[in-house]
Amino acid sequence: MALRDNGKLSKSVVERLIQDLEKDTDVMAMAADILGGQAVWSKDEERTLSGALTDPSSLTEDTVLDSHRRYSRLPMALRFLHDILEKDEWDSDFSLSTSAGTPSSNDMIPSMNLAQLILEGLTPEEPGRLKSIPRFVFHKYDDIYEEGWISDWNKDAIANSIQDNSIVVEVEPLSWKMTKTLLRALDQNCRNIKYYVLSPVVDVMAESLESLGDLKNVKTTVLHGSIEEGLAFIRSLEPEVPKTIAWLSLSTSGHTREEIRRLLASYHNALHSGDAWLIGFRTEVPTQENRMYKQDNMELDRVNQLLEQPLFDFDAFEYHETYNKEEERHEASYKVKNAHQLTDPGTGRETTVDLAKDELIHAKLTYVWSPYEMERLFEKTELIKVEHWTGKNPWSESRCYDLHLVSKTTERRE
Q: Which pLDDT value is given to residue 242?
């Protein structure tokens, strides 16, 4: 079946592609990965898969990827293709050049474009919702933390708690330092680990992973999606393969207690007995950490670096922090000193964002958990504690985070 009509991916072709994908055919599953930018492939894989798009008969058992990688992203690929069909300006927004190889993720999925991700936060559609800066801007810029949740003192113990020949899925990766440390520890201590990273911005994550060089015992793959969308991916994995979900403190601290309880309960049903969570919680927000955010205009500076243009003028904002007693969380924002506009944050079209005097741009929420709250969470979601690591504030001796390895041992009671 030809996937391109006159150099473009036609609507009728996508409809036929969806039909074949729903039959789980090998060629169409791999084709959807390419069309959706769902994975990072080697050059040889790109050539093989690109050839499959125009000549499916060219594939043989010796040239395709292993069946696990073929099928693992099928649910997200289907969702992507269904979304394409709902686009109003379909032909102009989603076209493929016949001279191109594998399309980049930014060409194919607007939600994976970092500039657009930032713009979405600054132009919320929901009435009354604060403008915000996505926390992902700190992925490669987490240098304010002298001591990570996964660091030299506990990395080997954490890696040794994960079985050989297993799958690790990291969701909402907000700290490259922790991801990098965990990957290297797994490579040194484990064998045959498949490590998937579920990220809203595939190209940024892929670039970071490439900087690690070759890993002998860990095979990495980047997937596009949110933690909620990861449920479909987890369900698609072989039940007999041990799995660990890594959800670390920088990410969990931005969710409400009810959101975390609901997510753990949902994932519980997608996992199997013996599968595990590596999950971290903030137990304190160091004053020195907030001071560094304030002095360095950190979020604003990171956005400017990522966009490679001065979207934010530091002198036009002041750092604002408070503790919300009702919600039991720390809140950090940037207050607009005087009304002005932000113009065209690199999205390929002229865009303006109106800012009013004293308006707040949300930077981060931090929910702090007590030991009792963590115990109750695991009881309610029917997860059993296996290991536990406590970290100290790098600027004092107080406890600032807890990292838990918890396991599913039973089917969840409804």
A: 94
The answer to whether 204 and 139 are in contact (CB under 8 A) is: yes
SS3 161: coil
| Segment 363-386 mean pLDDT | 90
Task: Evaluate if pTM is beyond 0.85.
Answer: no
185 sits in which H/E element: helix 176-189
Query: Which are the contacts of 161, defined by CB distance < 8 A and separation ≥ 6?
Result: 276, 386, 387, 405
Q: Say whether pLDDT at 182 is over 60.
A: yes
Q: How far apart are CA 204 and CA 179, in angstroms?
A: 13
Give the type of residue at 119. L
pLDDT tens-digit profile of 195-227?
998 887 777 788 888 888 889 999 998 887 778
Q: Rounded mean pLDDT of 353-379?
A: 90
Residues listed for the chain: 414
Please name each of the domains of the chain with its CATH number.
11-105 (no CATH), 114-138+286-367 (no CATH), 155-284+369-407 (3.40.50.150)
Contact 168, 198 (CB under 8 A): no
Q: Which two tokens stand for residue 309?
A: 């243009």
Q: Which of 109, 218, 121, 118 is nearest to 170 (CA)?
A: 218
Q: Say if residues 155 and 182 touch (Cβ distance below 8 Å).
A: yes
What is the secondary structure of 38-94 as a DSSP string?
-S---HHHHHHHHHHHH-GGG--TTTSPPHHHHHTTHHHHHHHHHHHHT-TTHHHHS
Euclidean distance between CA atoms 94 and 108, whole angstroms: 7
Question: How many angstroms separate the CA atoms of 308 and 304, rounded?
Answer: 6
pLDDT for res 295: 54
